[in-house]
Design a protein that fits this description.
CATH class: Mainly Beta
Oligomer: single chain
Shape: globular
Order of helices and strands: HEEEEEEEEEEEEEEEEEEEEEEEEEEEEE
Largest sheet: 5 strands, antiparallel
Length: 360
């Protein structure tokens, strides 16, 4: 695939370049993908919108990428490879170089691709073959991060949807239909299978920094199953609200200090906050949202900001809304596919995760 057209699009699409930061200073940016393949609300163009987190989350750059028009299913990245990897509804995956602002490669596969994860060394992308694939052959596409070539497939089970790599890089996780599969990152072997989990279907999950607990969203109520990773046992089923809420849960995140667990009730247009310093976690607050949508929740790496599938930006400590994501026309924009990137003099310093992992 030729890179040149994407370079031209990136250049002409910058209505305002990312401001240079002082020597030695790191700029923090939130890269948001549009349109979201799972929600029509909040879309604005086709490509990446870049928001300056420390400048009121103002939009400072737009990078048009035509294939985003397929609808984005996932956005993951690596500080080692210095790239973001995007997947679309039309079985496509691509690689965006954060330092050259070019799409390095795009590939279309016979299966996949959903919310993917990247190995700690930045060499391999693990792409779930999609919640829409109901066969036993559903699972991971193992992709060379350098050029997009398919190395092999790892069958796991129906509806392979969400995946993440642990903070220490030692494990990676895949959610399929009422099943959470835990892999050893050294050799891709299965460490443990947790089944059944999450009521029905397959929904998001998150993991603490020590790989002690996984929190798996429920498919028929607002809440999570708390899984002990070492044993694979579901220790607790935690529900939001004074009475069970019969909505699916699509979004769960630990604050980086692991003191709180936030979950999304997108149908009810709210987030629920739990005290995660006790087991089982106990609900302590709820946060209203400006709209519904796909459902998601995540935090900035420093734990200062909370984000979700809406345009709303929250102070994570006070749980108060402090702003909105807006495009260059002042229209509120949103997506459930976004990721934090730190740049210093145009060089990648850090890349976050689209899942709200504990980082204590």
């Amino acid at each position: 695939m030729k890179k040149f057209p994407y370079l031209i699009l990136a250049v002409i699409g910058w209505f305002h370049c990312v401001e240079a930061v002082d020597a030695g200073e790191t700029g923090r940016y939130l890269f948001m993908a549009s349109p979201d393949g799972a929600q029509a609300e909040g879309s604005s163009g086709e490509g990446l919108m870049v928001f300056a987190m420390d400048e009121g989350h103002k939009l400072v750059r737009r990078v048009p990428i035509p294939s985003f028009g397929d609808g984005i299913r996932g956005l993951t990245g690596s500080a080692v490879s210095k790239c973001l990897y995007f997947s679309t509804t039309k079985l496509r995956m691509g690689c965006f170089d954060l330092e050259t602002n070019q799409v390095k490669w795009e590939k279309t596969y016979t299966a996949g691709c959903d919310r993917s994860c990247v190995s700690a060394d930045g060499k391999t992308v693990y792409a779930p073959s999609g919640w829409w694939s109901g066969t036993e052959n559903s699972g991971f596409l193992v992709i060379d991060a350098a050029d997009g070539s398919l190395k092999k497939r790892i069958p796991v089970g129906p509806m392979a949807h969400n995946s993440l790599t642990s903070v220490d890089g030692k494990m990676f996780f895949l959610g399929t239909q009422t099943r959470l599969t835990i892999f050893d990152a050294r050799d891709e072997s299965v460490i443990r299978v947790v089944e059944p989990v999450g009521e029905q279907g397959v929904f998001p999950f998150t993991v603490d920094h020590a790989n002690k607990f996984a929190y798996v969203c429920l498919g028929a109520h607002v809440g999570v199953d708390v899984v002990e990773i070492a044993t694979g046992k579901v220790l607790h089923r935690v529900m939001a609200g004074p009475e069970p809420i019969a909505h699916r849960t699509h979004g769960v995140a630990l604050t980086p200090d692991e003191r709180e667990l936030w979950i999304s009730d997108q149908e009810g247009k709210q987030l629920f906050v739990f005290d995660a310093t006790q087991m089982p976690p106990k609900q302590v607050a709820s946060v209203p949202l400006s709209m519904g949508g796909h459902g998601w929740v995540n935090f900035s790496l420093d734990g200062k900001f909370a984000y979700c599938h809406t345009p709303d930006i929250f102070d994570a400590k006070t749980r108060q809304k402090i702003g909105e994501f807006k495009d260059e026309k002042g229209k509120p924009v949103s997506s459930s596919k976004f990721i934090e990137v730190h740049l210093r003099d145009g060089r990648v310093e850090a890349v976050g995760c689209e899942f709200g992992l504990g980082r204590k």
